Write a sequence for this structure.
C-alpha cells in the first residue's frame, strides 16, 4: 500500500482556442486541467469528483496518454508516460486501462462480444497464445457476470449494464495494474449502478487493481474510494480520505457539493442546511484570478482575488484544502457510508 | 426470412457463390478476413450467414453471375453475328427466328445485346471499383489525418468536382481518343474507365470523408487507441466497417449511371466506336427509331435495367447484412 504506482505532478492541459480558417490565430486557451498533482498507491481507489466541465475527463485522457500534457508529468512507477513511444508505450498500455462513460458508444457496433474482448489480445499478441484466446474471453465474460455463451452476440443485443460489463471485461483482459474509470456508472440506472460498482469492488479485491474513479456523483464515489479528490475548474480544491472529505470537509466548494446530496431520511432532512451556490462555473478560458472559486464563494475576501490558495494542510484541519479560510462546518451526515 | 420458400431458393446454386460474391461486392476487399476459422464468428461470417437466407440476394446474385458469364463467354448464349448484318433485314420485327428482331443495319439484336454486355459490364464495374477504391482511400486519409492533408486533398477534389462531367470527359477522351486515332477496343475501354473514375471520385471521397469525420471521434475508437491499437487496425477494423454503408449504396447506384455515361460518351463519338458493341451504343442508335421500331430500344434498355437493378439489390442486401442491428 505504500508504493506510488502513479504520480501526477503539476499536470497542465490547455487546449488552444483558434480563430480563422486559413490563418489560424490562437486567441486563448481552455485551461481544462491547470496544475493538478496527486499520487495513486497500489491497490488504492482514488475518487475524483467535480461538476461538468471541471476537467475530470481531460485528466483521464492525459492519464491514459491519449492526450499529451501541456506541462507537468504523469509518472507510472517513476517513468514519464508522455515521453514513451513505440514498444515502451505498448507495454504501458497493458498496465493502465480505461473504462468509459457511455456503454452505448464505447463498443464498436459491428464487432461481436468475442472480438471486442479479444481485441486486446490481438493488439498484444504476447499476452496470450492464439489458441487460448477464445477461452480467455469466455473466462472474462464469466468473471464480469455475463454468460460465456453470448460470445457471438453483438453489443446492441445487451442492456446498458451488460454493455458496461463488456467494457470492463475488455479493460481487464490485459490484467492491468491501474484502471481509469471515467464516470463508468453515470449512464446507468441506479440499481444497475450498484451492480457495476460491486463488480468493480470484487475485481479490485481479486486482482489488486488500483482505480482512478471519476464521477460527478458523490455517493457513488464514497462507495468505492479510499481517498477522494474534489476538482473545480481544472484545479483540485480538496484531497483527503473518505472520512475527511465526507465528514470534515473544509473547502467551501466541497461543503456546498455535500449539502446538495439528497437525504433519504425525512426527519434528518428538516435540519439540513442547503448551501445554494450563486451563478455558473466561470469560463475555463479566462478563470478568475487568485482562488477560482471566489466568484461563487460566500467567504470570498480581497486576498482570494490576489493569492492563489495552495493545496495544503491548514490550521484546524487534517487534510489538504485549497482555501484561505478553510474550516470545518457541520454538514448533516448525507447517508450511510456503504 | 426462414419460411420454406426461401429454402428452395437457397439450394439452387450452392457451389458458385463465393466467387461472385467477391465480384458483386468489391468494396469488401478492404475488410480483413477473420483469421480464425473454427466456431467463433466475426462480422463477415455473420454477414454471409445472413445473406444466404435472403432470396433477394440470391436473385440478384444469379442475374449478376449471368451477366458476368455473358460478358466473358458471349458465344455460349448466341451463335449469331453481332457485327455484320444484311440491309435487307433492316428493322425486321421480333419473330420466332430472331427473338429480338433486327436493327437498322439488319444485325441481330439478340446477338448484339449479348455481345454488348461485355463492354457495358466491364466499363461500369471496373470504373465503379476504381472510383470506390480511390475515392474511398482519399476520403479515409483526408478524414482521418485532418489538418493540412485534409485541406489539400479536399481542394484537389473540389477542382475535379468543378469540372462538368461531359465536358471533362470530352477533353480527356478527345485528347487520347480523338478522331483519327486507331485505338483498340480494350484501350478505349481503359480510357473510358479512366475518365469516368477521374471525374467521379470526389463524390465518393466526400461521402467517405464525412462518415470518417463522424466516426473517428467515437468512443470506441478512443477505446481502441487506449488499448494500443495502431492506425492500420483502427482504420480497417473500426472505421471502415462503420463507414462502408453509404459507400455501398452509392456504389451500386453508380454502376447504373456508369452504364448510362458510357452510352453518352459513345453517342458523342468519343467513347467506344462501332464495330464494338455496347448497350449504350445500341440505345443511342435506337432512339432515332423509337416511334417506328420501339423494340430496338426496348431490349437493350431491358437488359440495362435488369443489370442495374441486380446491382442495387445486391448492394442493399450486403449493406443490411453488414449491419448487425438490421439482422
Amino acid at each position: 500500500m505504500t508504493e506510488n504506482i502513479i504520480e501526477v505532478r503539476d499536470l497542465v492541459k490547455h487546449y488552444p482556442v483558434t480563430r480563422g480558417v486559413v490563418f489560424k490565430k490562437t486567441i486563448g486557451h481552455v485551461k481544462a486541467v491547470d496544475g493538478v498533482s496527486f499520487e495513486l498507491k497500489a491497490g488504492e481507489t482514488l475518487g475524483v469528483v467535480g461538476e461538468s466541465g471541471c476537467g475530470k475527463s481531460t485528466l483521464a485522457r492525459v492519464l491514459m496518454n491519449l492526450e499529451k500534457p501541456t506541462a507537468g508529468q504523469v509518472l507510472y512507477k517513476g517513468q514519464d508516460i508522455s515521453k514513451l513511444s513505440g514498444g515502451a508505450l505498448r507495454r504501458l498500455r497493458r498496465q493502465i486501462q480505461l473504462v468509459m462513460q457511455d456503454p452505448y458508444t464505447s463498443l464498436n457496433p459491428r464487432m461481436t462480444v468475442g472480438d471486442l474482448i479479444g481485441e486486446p489480445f490481438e493488439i498484444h499478441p504476447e499476452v496470450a497464445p492464439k489458441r487460448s484466446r477464445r477461452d480467455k474471453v469466455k473466462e472474462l465474460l464469466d468473471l464480469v457476470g455475463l454468460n460465456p455463451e453470448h460470445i457471438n452476440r453483438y453489443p446492441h443485443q445487451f442492456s446498458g449494464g451488460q454493455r458496461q460489463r463488456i467494457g470492463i471485461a475488455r479493460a481487464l483482459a490485459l490484467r492491468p495494474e491501474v484502471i481509469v474509470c471515467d464516470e463508468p456508472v453515470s449512464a446507468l440506472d441506479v440499481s444497475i449502478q450498484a451492480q457495476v460498482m460491486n463488480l468493480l469492488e470484487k475485481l479490485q479485491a481479486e486482482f489488486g487493481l488500483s482505480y482512478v474513479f471519476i464521477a460527478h456523483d458523490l455517493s457513488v464515489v464514497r462507495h468505492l474510494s479510499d481517498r477522494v479528490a474534489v476538482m473545480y475548474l481544472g484545479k483540485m480544491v480538496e484531497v483527503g480520505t473518505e472520512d475527511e472529505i465526507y465528514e470534515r470537509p473544509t473547502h467551501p466548494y466541497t461543503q456546498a457539493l455535500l449539502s446538495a446530496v439528497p437525504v433519504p431520511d425525512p426527519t434528518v432532512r428538516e435540519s439540513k442546511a442547503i448551501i445554494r451556490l450563486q451563478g455558473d462555473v466561470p469560463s475555463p478560458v479566462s478563470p478568475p484570478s487568485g482562488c477560482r472559486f471566489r466568484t461563487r464563494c460566500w467567504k470570498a475576501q480581497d486576498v482570494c482575488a490576489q493569492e492563489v490558495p495552495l493545496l495544503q494542510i491548514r490550521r484546524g484541519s487534517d487534510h489538504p484544502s485549497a482555501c484561505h479560510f478553510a474550516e470545518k462546518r457541520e454538514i448533516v451526515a448525507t447517508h450511510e457510508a456503504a | 426470412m426462414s419460411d420454406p420458400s426461401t429454402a428452395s431458393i437457397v439450394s439452387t446454386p450452392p457451389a458458385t457463390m463465393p466467387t461472385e460474391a467477391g465480384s458483386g461486392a468489391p468494396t469488401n476487399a478492404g475488410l480483413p478476413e477473420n483469421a480464425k476459422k473454427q466456431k467463433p464468428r466475426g462480422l463477415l461470417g455473420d454477414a454471409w450467414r445472413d445473406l444466404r437466407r435472403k432470396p433477394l440476394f440470391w436473385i440478384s446474385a444469379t442475374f449478376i453471375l449471368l451477366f458476368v458469364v455473358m460478358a466473358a463467354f458471349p458465344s455460349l448464349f448466341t451463335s449469331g453475328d453481332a457485327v455484320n448484318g444484311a440491309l435487307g433485314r433492316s428493322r425486321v420485327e421480333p419473330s420466332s427466328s430472331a427473338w429480338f428482331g433486327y436493327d437498322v443495319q439488319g444485325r441481330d439484336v439478340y446477338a448484339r445485346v449479348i455481345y454488348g454486355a461485355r463492354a457495358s459490364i466491364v466499363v461500369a464495374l471496373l470504373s465503379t471499383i476504381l472510383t470506390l477504391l480511390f475515392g474511398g482511400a482519399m476520403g479515409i486519409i483526408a478524414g482521418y489525418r485532418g489538418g493540412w492533408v485534409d485541406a489539400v486533398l479536399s481542394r484537389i477534389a473540389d477542382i475535379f468536382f468543378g469540372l462538368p462531367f461531359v465536358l471533362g470527359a470530352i477533353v480527356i477522351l478527345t485528347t487520347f481518343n480523338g478522331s483519327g486515332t486507331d485505338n483498340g477496343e480494350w484501350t478505349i475501354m481503359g480510357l473510358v474507365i479512366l475518365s469516368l473514375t477521374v471525374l467521379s471520385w470526389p463524390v465518393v471521397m466526400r461521402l467517405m470523408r464525412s462518415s470518417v469525420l463522424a466516426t473517428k471521434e467515437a468512443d470506441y475508437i478512443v477505446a481502441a487507441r487506449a488499448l494500443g491499437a495502431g492506425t492500420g487496425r483502427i482504420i480497417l477494423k473500426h472505421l471502415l466497417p462503420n463507414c462502408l454503408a453509404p459507400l455501398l449504396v452509392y456504389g451500386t447506384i453508380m454502376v447504373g449511371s456508369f452504364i448510362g455515361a458510357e452510352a453518352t460518351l459513345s453517342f458523342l463519338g468519343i467513347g467506344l466506336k462501332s464495330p464494338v458493341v455496347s448497350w449504350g451504343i445500341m440505345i443511342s442508335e435506337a432512339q432515332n427509331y423509337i416511334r417506328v421500331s420501339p423494340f430496338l430500344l426496348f431490349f437493350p434498355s431491358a437488359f440495362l435495367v435488369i443489370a442495374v437493378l441486380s446491382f442495387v439489390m445486391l448492394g442493399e442486401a450486403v449493406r443490411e447484412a453488414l449491419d448487425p442491428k438490421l439482422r
Residues 54-326 of chain B form a domain with the MetI-like fold fold (CATH 1.10.3720.10). Confidence is low (pLDDT under 50) at residues 1-38 of chain B. Chain B touches chain A through 27 residues (CB under 8 Å).
